[in-house]
Amino acid sequence: MGRKILHVDMDAFFAAVEQLRRPDLRGKPVVVGGDGNPHKRGVVSTASYEARAFGIHSAMPLRTAYAKCPHAVFLAVDFAAYGDYSRRVRAILHEYTPLVEPLSLDEAFLDVSHRPDDPVALAQDIRAAINARTGLTASVGVAPNKLLAKIASNLRKPDAVTEIRLETVAEMLRDLPTTVLWGVGPKTAARLGEALGVRTVGELCSIPLAALQTLLGDHHGEYLYHICRGEDDSPVVTEWEPKSISRETTYQWDTRRRDVIVRTISSLVGDVIDDLREEGYVARTVTVKIRYRDFATHTRAQTLPAPVGDAATVLQTAVALLERFAMDRPVRLVGVRLSNLVKPGREPGTGNRNFFTPLVRSEGRRLPVTG
DNA sequence: TCTGGGGTCCTTATCCTC
DNA sequence: TCTGGAGGATAAGGACCC
Prior knowledge:
This protein is of the alpha+beta class. 36% of the residues lie in helices and 22% in strands.
């Protein structure tokens, strides 16, 4: 008997919450992103379906979105509010199973294998419960594994339940572009297209393992070989530990002034240390990231002899790292990252929450702890 | 009109130790 | 003592995800 996995994906989540809070926005194009000013640097986090009709989508620069639809309502991202709704939705999900893996504020996997119910009926139930109790709509994918459940929830939106069965996998995936697969982005899709003439999942299935490994490396090649066939044994992971904690900021106007950058780093260090403490970690590695005006992005890192948790040491390390960058061009972004995280008095965390490793189980691979 | 922020993991190169 | 390789740690960049 196979597993029963659901993928619950809230529809246009940020924008939907805004429309819920402000009924006057319903039916209007709403764009959530940045600080809500479409004339400043920033990108679209979420566009309402009304805004999408104008060609606006996530990750689009706010200025571009404004050009496409000047009369759209532009709003700042309000993570506190979305977190609130996210917790309410999650609480509903937990009424159905303790095996809930949140993927982000607006997505989660559920393992309902242990329930006798028909999974599609269960998905309909969950969708209705979310709508009745929050006013928000969700799309749910039903499948024998996480990979297919995620693809399924994306096939029909919004407010829909879509099932992919093992016996229909090949047929349902065959003509879809390779980018529907998790881990295939624009670069990989282009390489597959140029080197192998592969555009669809079905075409990808016809490529031998060795050819994929030659093109993309052993690991990624093997990964694609399995996922294009809908194969994925990864468990629903209910707990994980962070691997890194970071903060970064983009200037409204590029700068080459060292004093400005040092002040930014100081502020970022303060924020990142706050997060580190909140999570209860200390860190060994400090990384400074600089993105220049031409978008070239560089990092410089230093691993300290012992984990640290105080702002002064991290700041001192970060400022020293800054000296290793060529300040020959204006800087648009500065970031600070802490990694090699350790809980004081414990071994480094081995928790896992990623998109590559757990999707396909293979021999000898370390697997995350399941709930 | 460019191109956010917070993450994860992979690959490759290099250095060091055994 | 010299040399070579294995393998871990570190560093940097890149791809991807939401």
